[in-house]
Amino acid sequence: MTTLLRIDASARRTGSLTRQLGDRFEAEWKRERSGDHWNYRDLALQAPSHISEDWIAAAFTPADRRTARQETRLAESDRLIAELVAADIIVLCVPMYNYGMPSALKAWVDNVVRIGRTFSFDLSRGDFPLEPILSGKTLIVLSSSGEFGFDKGGVRGEMDQLVPHLMTLRHYLGIAEHHLIRIEYQEFKDERHAASVTKSLEESAGLARKLTASLSQEAAMA
Ligand SMILES: Cc1cc2nc3c(=O)[nH]c(=O)nc-3n(C[C@H](O)[C@H](O)[C@H](O)COP(=O)(O)O)c2cc1C
């Protein structure tokens, strides 16, 4: 059984394009593999708390020396990390906001990228002391933007702070494989946008079929 974690980061619960991409992916996946387990984290319903001075102090105190109050402060982070650890595949439905990620998603990242839980820190490693603890996960980024041309070499290729940020974070989330599908032109509401929506929805369904087929093939060969 594969465990998937779907994270919705759009503040919109109605009319959201990233949620539509997620719904299409999920429906196709479930049609092919109904026995897999899905966990859901909707950041619009409940944004994770921002980290704070006491959170940082608690996270950097060795687990066996934490006070009860510090344990309580980290409880939310523990829950979010447990969902991440359990996931084989992370389906991240994420809009571009102000050229980067929505703040609720950034709060999620700050809660899950945590010393001793998702990464280790050791100065004997020299200039790159951080190493991930997790491994082998697949990240699927289903995104949408109002403007267009954010791919490398595109007219706004230098303005994208969303995908490059997620790509950098892959290391700390234990991501071994990733896929990106994105709708563009949402603010233009023209035929380019319509074509982009159609294409991305088809790609979402196609990706779900491809990944489920390869999992079934692996299971047959095992
Ligand atoms: C607060 C906010 C900020 C946005 N910033 C950008 C931006 O910087 N660049 C861009 O291309 N689109 C931007 N957009 C447009 C969204 O990326 C686009 O509407 C997307 O479809 C939103 O995702 P959703 O449909 O899942 O809600 C912004 C939208 C909102 C609401």
Describe the structure.
A hairpin with an 8-residue loop joins strand 4 (119-121) and strand 5 (130-132). The strands form 2 sheets. The protein has a 5-stranded parallel β-sheet, with helices on both faces. A two-stranded antiparallel sheet has the order 4-5. 42% of the residues lie in helices and 19% in strands. The longest helix has 31 residues, at 191-221. The radius of gyration is 19 Å and the shape is globular. By secondary structure, it is of the alpha/beta class. The chain has one domain (3-221): Flavodoxin domain (Rossmann fold, 3-Layer(aba) Sandwich). Residues 10, 12, 16-19, 95-99, 144-147, 186 line the site of flavin mononucleotide.
Keywords:
5-stranded parallel sheet; two-stranded antiparallel sheet; 42% helix; Rossmann fold; alpha/beta; 222 residues
What layout of secondary structure does this protein have?
Elements: E1 3-8, H1 17-32, E2 37-42, H2 53-59, H3 68-73, H4 75-86, E3 89-95, H5 103-112, E4 119-121, E5 130-132, E6 137-144, H6 163-173, E7 175-183, H7 191-221
Parallel strand pairs: 1-2, 1-3, 3-6, 6-7
Antiparallel strand pairs: 4-5
Bound molecules: flavin mononucleotide (FMN).
Flavin mononucleotide binds near residues 96, 146 and 147.
Give a brief description.
The protein contains 7 helices and 7 strands; from the N terminus they run βαβαααβαβββαβα. By secondary structure, it is of the alpha/beta class.
